[in-house]
Fold this protein.
Amino acid sequence: MSSTVAVLAIDQGTTGSRALLVGRDGGILGSAYEEFPQYFPGPGLVEHDPEEIWGSVLSTVERALAAADLTPGQLVGLGITNQRETTVVWERETGRPMGPAIVWQDRRTTDRCAALSGTPAGTLIRDRTGLVVDPYFSATKLEWLLERNPAWRDRAASGELLFGTVDSWVLFRLTGGGTHATDHTNASRTLLYSLDDGDWDPELCAIFGVPEGMLPEVRDSAGHFGTTDPDVLGAEIPVAGVAGDQQAALYGHGGWSRGDAKNTYGTGAFLLLHTGGARGPPVPGVLTTVACGPRGERAFAYEGAVLIAGAAIQWLRDGIQILDAAPLSEEQARSVSSTEGAYFVPALVGLGTPHWAAGARGTMVGLSRGTRRAHIVRAALEAIAYSVDDALEAMLGPSDISLGTFRADGGAARNDWLMQFQADLLQTPVHRPAAAELTAIGAAGLAGVATGFWSEPEGFLPAHGAERVFEPDALRMADMAGWRAGWKRAVRTALFWASERSRSP
Ligand code: ADP
């Protein structure tokens, strides 16, 4: 009889770390969550302390094991999923971080990116990586660190100093310095990785002045990443899965085939559309990224980012204070049969996919004397659905992919009215699993498949529990077509306002 009874998932997120234990039947045996400090040392700067990240990982793993009444020796393996793009540099010999981690949200390299964007190098970067030249991604953060610390360069070239995204950092510590590796999904978010070659790209490294000696080895998301140092967790546990958070969530939903899509309705919304084993053609305003096949093998996806989703509801609650609590938005929306022509484009921090208009701002149009609070609240919820629809339309339009199963998770996906509106708008069913922690479940799935804990990837899907499916109402198609046209006009208004502003003082 096997003495291993669970897979451990470590979900190292932007505001906190989570550990989750999944049993052989896909049931969740225990979990723990802990926040850690965020540092904002100046306008646009966002940092983490790598030691605090690591501390929160260790303590949540210990607490989750205690909650499930398990010992480390009962773990068949572990998987890591992580906040993507965040950049860490540390010393191989001592494992000591060389300074703070620069978080994906940090904007310190905005000028550098603007200067690169219109150049031949910018075009090469876009073609090779499937990304856009933006401070969001790791390379300009690493370049910034190397330029400010000239003494690091030689040490980095000889492999004394190591670079990694957060997966690599946690992996290095877990294995007692034994493994310096990452997976394809994380590597594909750095601007240093060639989508076609599946590895670091020497020309991209040269553009950003990054010595290749400091880069982690790129491996498949489900596979061998070494074993944990017994001094760290008390047992030698195979690390068998690694994937970035959005890709892990897609995998956790069972989204591992061409046409599968998932949208996370959180503060912002992140949409991933699986394109199968081949890289899809470039689509304007849409990122191309690495995703996982059924057994964690390298596959591809389109990715869209809606910068404000649930945050629009937060703003109604905390900003203009017309809502007492986010869930109450649902009854407000139901209390009216339409917005009566009102639209709210919640471009509070600009617009993401497919417009990428950093200067756009929130816009309300179509107001009349009859406009009431409920209409504005409903317009905000509708805006979330319209924004996701725009991103999906941008992906599906120029490609030959047809949409398979559309799955939803994240805080605002709890809103039944929003899910139904989304289904009616997309005219496709929206599947919402009962389990909330799809990201961690995905990491557990990868590790469980790699270790043979589940002989088939479907083995971990029961962790979802019963899902609810929102079926589209065909009778609402005509309404939707008209409303959607109105939304697009409202977005054009927001974009026009932004473009006029940049022209006049
Ligand atoms: P994140 O992981 O980005 O912090 P969550 O997935 O926890 O976000 O979702 C929180 C967001 O969802 C908040 O912006 C909140 O306003 C929104 N939200 C939560 N519940 C609801 C609801 N019932 N209806 C609409 N929005 C909601």
Observations:
- The chain has 16 helices and 22 strands.
- The longest strand covers residues 298-306.
- The two ends are 75 Å apart (CA to CA).
